[in-house]
Each structure stands twice: as structure tokens, then as C-alpha cells.
Amino acid sequence: MTDTYLYLIHEPDWDSDAFLGGGTGVPGGEPHNNFAEHRVFQEAVERLGARIVGASALQNARHGGRVTPGAGDRVETDAVYSDGPYPDTSEVVSGYYVVETDDESLARRIAALVPTGGHIEWRKVFPIS
To answer: What angle in degrees, to the nearest 10, is found between the helix axes of 104-113 and 36-47?
Structure first.
């Protein structure tokens, strides 16, 4: 049976806006030079016989936030919102991969290959369908 694993990339936040300006990708470079280490990772996953079924880089934390929902029928009314970045952590989730494999030990090996300036958290996805 094939299982699905989520790999969360935890690392210091990055200046995502610098990569969006003018459509040139890497500041001062060409778009095909973006995230070269991630292309190498994607090729390695394929060689190992697993399959990436989803992935995204997340923009800087200032483009999001946290919410603690209110209770009962006041879920929105009593919600407490916080803007990022968050003072209680030096790392954020900067991106993720979703990978399918039928080998739990391979899932563990793949976690070590995900490019990061911090650490990777990997979790087996609970089947809800």
C-alpha cells in the first residue's frame, strides 16, 4: 500500500518578495536559477522510486498570521489574530513537500534529503477518503 508523507520545511524566514519583483526570479539572476537545490532533491526522490504529489514554497510570514478561534457560535467573533513573524520562534514553515511511497524507511531517508537551512518535520498523512 502506498502511503503519503508531508515534509514541513522549518527554517528562518526569507525575503520572498525579492524573488517576485520584475519576474526575474533570483535577485539579479534568471528564473531557471531559482531553488536549484530543490530541483536536485526532486530528481533524487524520483530516482529512489517515490513520487512527489505536491509542493510549495510559502511566502514570508508577514503575508499571513495565526488565529486562535473563539468557542461555539462565536468562532469568528472571539477569534484572536496575531500577525507574523512570531517572536516566540526563530523559524517558520517556509515550504512543504507531499510524497507518496510504500516504504516507511524510504520516507525517513527522504526527510534527510529535503533542502533546508533549518530542520524538516515529516508526518504520515492520515487517510480521510
So the answer is: 160
Domain 3-124, CATH: 3.30.70.1060
**pLDDT digits over 106-123, tens only?**
999 999 999 999 999 999
| Predicted confidence (pLDDT) at residue 105 exceeds the cutoff of 90 | yes
Residues 9 and 92: their CA atoms lie apart, in Å, by 8
Q: Check if the beta carbon of residue 12 is closer than 8 Å to that of residue 118.
A: yes
Task: Specify the amino acid at residue 101.
Answer: T
8 A C-beta contact, residue 45 and residue 114? no
d(CA 100, CA 49): 9
pTM of the model: 0.86
Residue 30 is placed in which grid cell?
534568471
For 9, the enclosing helix (H) or strand (E) is strand 3-11
Give me the amino acid identity at 93.
V
User: With contact defined as beta carbons under 8 Å apart, do 37 and 115 qualify?
Assistant: yes
